[in-house]
Amino acid sequence: MAECPLPVPSSCDCFVSLPPATASDTVIFGKNSDRPRDEVQEVVYFPSADYAKGVKVQCTYIEVDQAERTHAVILSRPAWLWGAEMGANEHGVCIGNEGVWTKEPVGEEEALLGMDLVRLGLERGGSAHEALQVITSLLEHHGQGGSCKEEPTPFIYHNTFLLADRTEAWVLETAGQYWAAQRITEGARNISNQLSIDTNITEEHTELRNHAQKQGWWSGEGKFHFAEVFSLTHQPVRMEAAKARYCAGQELLRLHAGQITVETIMGILRDKASGICVDSEGFRTTGSMASILPQDPVLPCIHFFTATPDPSRSVFKPFIFAPSITPFPKVWSPSFGSEDPVKKVPRFRSLVDRRHKLYRKHQSALEIMEADQEGQKLQQTMQELERQGLEAMKQLLAGGISLDPKELADLFFDCVDTEIKFYK
């Protein structure tokens, strides 16, 4: 594929494939989280929990009412915030978000971040559609806003989301408190830092069209094209670049239509020529996720996370929800409590070292990989490590092997531990 000629944008790409685009009766989900180059992304697990009525939960900037019960979740998130860039829950729901700029102005007032909404949707949604309803309800009630980068200069955007479960997917795109959603029941779909829902709107904010008319963005006549009505007339450079990346993602999905597997999605997430795998001076892909969601409810959903930057030089490690998950602190960042710069107002006036153990080891490995022969050998060994994990997961889904609950609970922990020992 020809290299993307436009500047590298500063956000992400999400992908989903459903039958008949997939090679089997599975839904495949994937996301790259493109963030400031030195930002650390951790992978954290939270078990399901019950709460008393009236309890509040502190998100990144604001408190909201806590649900009386939350689902178990696995999250990949920038280590400084409460929410997540991407993740999954015990019911096979996956969500990822993207930054977007629209005609609806962004505000500096602190509210819910798109990443907070990802986590809240996963903790409260038993299906992709239920998670969508959770997100839109919270969005309408609390709004979205606040800086999305760990630095004094605010970096603010609104959000689009890709939600998937074992049977369907939803694209949710927002502009302030307004939103439109499109249901996907077959084929492949991607999103990439721009509005992409046209006239095919499945659900929407009750005042969406009235608001567009009042603002003079839509005449009220003819079909309502969400992306055309709410997109900026003059796009910022980062969104112009995203158009090329979005088209490249569409083409890669089209090329593999009917044969898409989790390896296909991992390959797309690693594609640097298209700009999908970001590696620029200011931004890079800091974490990646790919999931297999079998349509057979008896089979487990398998979620793969890198927990390290640059998927082309990282290992995707499998996670399966199981009773009594073994903690994996080697991919948890240090906690700074009340001294954390994100919790002090004014925020982000100092920096702290958030690198977790695997991140540190991977940093050293990246330096080796930049050398010729030694680096090639290291990458080949890493690829073999990942291939063995993928093969074991294929056999598990095919019934060729069985893992007891203890092995399932230890799966991600053991893979992280193996990778760290390998880097030594």
From TrEMBL:
Query: In Gene Ontology terms, what is a biological process of this protein?
Result: proteolysis
Q: In the record, what terms sit under GO molecular function? A: cysteine-type exopeptidase activity; dipeptidase activity
Q: Which Pfam families is this protein grouped with?
A: Peptidase_C69
Tell me yes or no: is Signal among this UniProt entry's keywords: no
Q: Does the keyword Cell wall biogenesis/degradation apply?
A: no
Q: Which residues form a coiled coil?
A: 368-395
UniProt keyword annotations, A-Z:
Coiled coil
Family, similarity comment: Belongs to the peptidase C69 family. Secernin subfamily.
Provide the protein name. Secernin-2
Query: Which species is this UniProt entry from?
Result: Sphenodon punctatus (Tuatara)
